[in-house]
Amino acid sequence: MSCVATFSIFPLERPDQGSFAPYVARTIEIVRESGLPYELGAMGTVLEGDLDRIMETIKHCHDDMRKECGRVYLSLTVDSRSGESGRMHGKVDSVGELLK
User: Which backbone phi and psi does 82 adopt, to 5 degrees?
Assistant: First the structure.
């Protein structure tokens, strides 16, 4: 089974009230360390792979952020499908073909 997941995570209560960028950067470090294919977007991050590995990675991101922050917001959407991989880019490419 191949899964494509999109998640957004950010602190609602944090020690400093500055930019979210340091928290996003730390989250992306964790995602990179997972070895899963990913793409960072303006409003979230897309991951592709086995559902268990995706969930483990997102949980790691959540737990890491909770170490410093009293409250964390996490939004998650998952599309799971038998067989195929490479769907993270394939979905976008198929729409791009129709727009030519």
Answer: -70, 140
- Tell me which residue has tokens 């494509």: 4
Q: What is the Cα–Cα distance from 73 to 42, expressed in whole angstroms? A: 16
Residues 6+ apart with CB under 8 A from 79: 3, 4, 5, 87
Q: Name the percent of the chain lying above pLDDT 90.
A: 65
Which residue is associated with the tokens 């089974």?
Answer: 1
Tokens describing residue 47: 């991951």
Q: Please name the residues in contact with 32: beta carbons below 8 A apart, sequence gap of 6 or more.
A: 38
Note the pTM of the prediction, 2 decimals: 0.85
For residue 18, which phi and psi values (nearest 5 degrees)?
Answer: -85, -150
